[in-house]
TrEMBL record, chains A, D:
Belongs to the PyrK family. This is Dihydroorotate dehydrogenase B (NAD(+)), electron transfer subunit. Heterotetramer of 2 PyrK and 2 PyrD type B subunits. HAMAP family: DHODB_Fe_S_bind. Pathway: Pyrimidine metabolism; UMP biosynthesis via de novo pathway; orotate from (S)-dihydroorotate (NAD(+) route): step 1/1. Its cofactor is [2Fe-2S] cluster; FAD. CDD domains: DHOD_e_trans (cd06218). [2Fe-2S] cluster binds at C216, C221, C224, C238.
From TrEMBL, chains B, C:
Residues 4-285 form the Dihydroorotate dehydrogenase catalytic domain. Catalyzes the conversion of dihydroorotate to orotate with NAD(+) as electron acceptor. The gene is pyrD. InterPro entries: Aldolase_TIM, DHO_dehydrogenase, DHOD_1B, Dihydroorotate_DH_1, Dihydroorotate_DH_1_2, Dihydroorotate_DH_cat, Dihydroorotate_DH_CS, Dihydroorotate_DH_I. This is Dihydroorotate dehydrogenase. It comes from Virgibacillus siamensis. Gene3D superfamilies: Aldolase class I. Substrate binds at K45, N69, A70, I71, G72, L73, N127, N192, T193.
Length: 251, 306, 306, 251
């Protein structure tokens, strides 16, 4: 169950262009969070909280890691927070990735830019369950690449950059491995990428993780809806998501 | 012991704090954070005659000490609300206020009549001011005759006390308040959001899909205080105050201005516990400034009248 | 090289940044911080027919991301301003805009005529919206016929281009803008402050001696953007935009909304160098978002029109 | 000339009830400020700057001291600033105390509450010029008393508390020394105290230091005016003051 918690910042560092890794300590979150969930973080002086995915969990050390890109005021300010300071967050928020471990042998993780972090968390969980992981990670350019070696440790990893300055050149959909190799896919990244991926893999089942601007982050305000083929006609990203079956919502 | 109770038409409030319409859904989500029995009342999200999907996303934007929203009255329709949401809230020992909206007089009447029959609802809040829906909403809220007309029709359609929620996007808020008072309103709710816009430099267009949205949060508090102060001198019906409330000190400022109770909106998003926290600190704040009870403080900011 | 120049009726601006009326006095104080020649223009503090002392103190209060002021048009009167302040500003190579106010049509005419004769003033900004003075101000600014009337009379009383400064405290800002355009306004200035109030818990009365004051600063930016966006689609005269500008990004947002130049008010109090700092960073911000010049960006936030 | 400067916080400590002493380093301010001037200090997240008097100046160490009372959001927040952090301020602001040293033998300093600090700065300067100083300092109660020993070092010092919990009981005007002893007075404190002092000492000349809510703090916005008997009919506290001749303005 989601709670309002304080997390202590143990480490903040820039690991790629404008991309910050932050290690946070909180036993409740570290014990209860599952991959795909996010924290709804309060940044001083800002009305709205910022949703940031949990990128990895260390249940023994009671820590979690988040990765975020400096794209605006809130993330810039968050990046300037110092070790030892406290962060207020609501979490663990959202549903997380769900899958039937027994039915999966090999899965594909397809991440774009700052959509990569939640997949890392998922990947570590998948391999613990004996599921093979192939990762395709897209970044804008060489400067932006992060976590390549961590994904390599999980399994085969293909890095793609828009401008070809590192790894393969092009979009992630240009460099997907043979579809026959895998049973399922998980993807997270910008909407155009998600559209391309779900199209390219339309004959496979998969899960997508979505982003939207949020108000409450708890399911009350209806800021973050996405049209869906259910009785209500919509789902809430903050509560029913951020992870949805690829055919469940209309992106 | 500081007395926090307030009695308003149709509402016996154990304290003057309620979540504002649209910022609390129908209470389910926040009931996971705390016991809703702590609240003075609950104002439900707007109900319309039929289910509405609302606007495209993005629906919210952040502004200095505030936010813009253009949800667009998304709701499952009054029948579904009565079927599934009202019973959930009826379990609590807290008065429920139904916020009603519509694009036509007939829709308002229909929604009001439905809540009247349903029971378990203590009062209606007439949303004539939601600035996000193109048809109807904005005109009802900025034209005194139309506001009076819809008030009158809703009063006839139901026996429930009616609180008319005023829009701040007008030159003469006193005129609006008097018009709906004469038309039979039992109370006022004020203020709704100010119409605003944010333009995104990168995409070169308004950030909200709906282009304009309603400005709420601390940014609008001075406007709310001014309007409540002015209106309370010219009407004799009570006012539920709202607009940027974040603390018990803010609540006292609204009481002094002339509000008899208050609603907390945007602040719930920053802190889901904000309502119970305010309720817990209110007695101390009242005492600090020399008040024995909530009713003791109402309207006491009008120096001329003392 | 990014081209920052803008040509408006009576004003050749080397850049679109000017300090807003009332927030910069007559420039003397800020001339100790930087060379006023950097500015696009200077808008002087309001001038009235005779000297005015203004309201009692306190005259300012702080609000979330904003402030309230009720200075009350304190000024030495138009003759004294022409004698002592205009010559000081005339030393700079910067167009001077005179903000004129009055309680009667005759007072407006008198002030306009005086500036017309004086020379060294490039344009008039007609303050029909100052909400702090009980007689006149508020009515001129919220009634389209009266606004048109004062515009018309001031146009006749002087040959200077007239920018009418609109009040945001209205339901129909487009109607106000069209009324003054038809009456001969050469441009618009928008927005003036929103009327607000703060109540002091300790003293149990409004903090400002004048009770109400004008809300300015970041808090009102979304309201300003919305009004400029809406009005710019319905008039063909240029708009000087203002309301909460603190950075070059904010300036771009106003240009996209449809303003041709901007004024910076409250931000001067936080940072006396804010105007030259914005001017220095504007080329970089324009370039970042793909604009070669200021004029290139004006009105580009209207997606429908592209 | 007043400038926009950054000052480094060297020390922050609470020296009496809700009363904070802060030592700040900035060579420009330490070199140019005179007693009675103030800093117009920016507090994060607040629109308006806060005016705070300079309580003492160490021209050699390039430091100045300010003393302030936590009375609202801004001063509460300022009190939470840590050593090593920077403060933005406009200063030195205002006119400061002016006097003709040669014509003075003994002066009276009369301070109330948080009006005491600027008088300390003045007192140290006066005794350096060989002028005798008698101080009458009023506080609400024992908890609120500060700088008594520092004033004792300058000369005879009478401490008065409203409730008699320390020193003499009553108002400062109840415990003024024999007027014949002194040539001039300087006073700073709440308006009712200033009125009482100027009345009690109406046959003497003196200077008063005033407070008012400020907008610009530089003389441009006319937020801080006080009626005066001059051609304009007013003076600006931020620029023409905060120190005025006792008969110059109408309090
Ligand atoms: C479920 C979820 C998980 C996310 N996980 C990550 C992550 O792990 N790492 C990461 O870098 N980013 C993540 N994002 C995106 C991140 O929330 C935004 O980049 C961030 O909110 C931008 O804040 P800002 O103040 O820097 O930008 P600003 O543009 O100044 O923010 C203004 C407002 O818009 C909102 N906003 C802006 N962009 C987005 C966006 N893309 N999604 C949602 N709200 C937005 C902000 O929260 C804020 O309310 C996630 C978003 C969602 C919805
Ligand atoms: C020239 C001058 C020198 C001063 N020197 C000192 C000093 O040395 N030590 C000290 O403790 N205080 C001093 N003050 C008073 C000090 O400025 C206020 O206590 C402080 O601004 C309160 O800020 P706040 O945010 O805590 O209070 P809030 O009430 O939250 O402030 C709200 C607004 O009101 C203004 N304000 C509130 N009280 C005052 C006041 N008394 N005077 C001016 N503005 C006020 C604030 O600056 C702010 O803009 C001085 C004031 C002036 C004008
Ligand atoms: C996301 C959101 C949705 C809202 N929906 C409604 C609504 O459905 N009906 C209504 O009358 N007011 C609605 N409002 C307005 C609030 O009830 C309240 O009047 C306003 O936000 C001012 O209060 P605040 O500043 O505390 O948020 C909504 C406000 C927000 C922020
Ligand atoms: C202290 C103060 C004094 C002002 N005086 C005037 C005035 O004399 N005439 C006028 O037209 N506007 C006056 N204004 C309004 C500003 O010019 C401007 O329209 C408004 O403050 C919004 O801009 P801002 O948010 O950048 O301050 C004043 C504003 C402030 C804060
Ligand atoms: S952010 Fe409020 S419902 Fe999702
Ligand atoms: S504070 Fe602006 S003139 Fe003094």
């Amino acid at each position: 169950m989601k709670k309002k918690v304080m997390l202590t910042i143990l480490d903040v560092r820039e690991i790629a262009l404008d991309t910050v890794e932050m290690i946070l300590e909180n036993s409740y979150i570290a014990e209860t969070a599952v991959p795909g969930q996010f924290l709804h973080i309060s940044v001083d002086g800002h009305t709205l909280r910022r949703p940031i995915s949990i990128a990895s969990i260390d249940r023994k050390q009671h820590t979690i890691t988040i990765l975020f890109k400096k794209v605006g005021d809130g993330t810039e300010q968050l990046a300037a927070y110092q070790n030892g300071m406290s962060l207020s967050a609501l979490g663990p928020s959202g549903n997380g990735f769900h899958y039937e471990a027994s039915s999966l042998k090999t899965v594909l993780l397809i991440g774009g830019g700052i959509g990569v972090p939640p997949l890392y968390n998922l990947g570590t969980e998948l391999i613990q369950q004996g599921i093979n992981v192939i990762s395709v990670l897209g970044f804008q350019s060489k400067d932006c690449v992060f976590y390549e070696d961590k994904f390599q440790e999980l399994g085969r990893t293909i890095v793609v950059t828009d401008d070809g300055s590192y790894g393969q050149q092009g979009f992630v959909t240009d460099h997907l491995p043979d579809k026959a190799l895998c049973d399922y896919y998980f993807t997270c990244g910008p909407i155009p990428m998600l559209r391309a991926v779900t199209n390219a893999l339309h004959e496979k089942s998969g899960s997508i993780s979505l982003e939207e601007r949020m108000g409450c982050g708890v399911g009350a305000c209806l800021a973050c809806v996405i049209p869906a083929d259910n009785a209500d006609g919509y789902r809430k990203i903050c509560k029913d998501g951020p992870v949805f079956g690829a055919s469940e919502v209309m992106i | 012991m500081t007395d926090l109770t307030v009695d308003l038409p149709g509402l016996h409030l154990k304290n003057p704090i309620m979540p504002a319409s649209g910022c609390f859904g129908f209470g389910r989500e926040y009931s996971e954070f705390y016991d809703l029995n702590k609240l003075g009342a609950v104002i439900m999200k707007a109900a319309t005659g039929e289910r509405r999907y609302g606007n495209n996303t993005p629906r919210v934007a952040e502004t200095p000490s505030g936010m813009l929203n253009a949800i667009g009255l998304q709701n499952p329709g009054v029948e579904k609300i009565i079927e599934t949401e009202v019973p959930f809230l009826a379990e609590y020992d807290v008065p429920v206020i139904a916020n009603i909206a519509g694009s036509t007089l007939e829709e308002y009447e229909k929604v009001a009549a439905a809540f009247n029959e349903a029971g378990s609802v203590s009062a209606l809040e007439l949303n004539i001011s939601c600035p996000n829906v193109k048809e109807g909403g904005i005109q009802f809220g900025t034209n005194p005759e139309m506001a009076a007309n819809v008030t009158n029709r809703v009063k006839k359609a139901s026996n429930l006390p009616v609180y008319v929620k005023l829009s701040p996007n007008v030159a003469d808020i006193i005129g609006m308040a008097k018009a709906v008072e004469e038309a039979g309103a039992d109370g006022l709710s004020m203020i709704n959001t100010l119409t605003g816009m944010q333009i995104h430099q990168g995409s070169r267009k308004p950030l909200l899909a709906n282009k304009t949205g309603g400005l709420s949060g601390g940014a609008i508090k001075p406007v709310a205080i001014r309007m409540i102060y002015d209106v309370s001198q010219h009407v004799s019906i009570p006012i539920i105050g709202m607009g940027g409330i974040e603390s018990a000190e803010d609540v006292l400022e609204f009481l002094l201005a002339g509000a008899s109770a208050v609603a907390v909106g945007t602040a719930n998003f920053q802190n889901p516990y904000v309502c119970p926290e305010i309720i817990d600190s209110l007695p101390g704040v009242l005492a600090k400034y020399g008040f024995q009870s909530v009713t003791d403080a109402i309207g006491k900011g009008h120096e001329d009248e003392r």
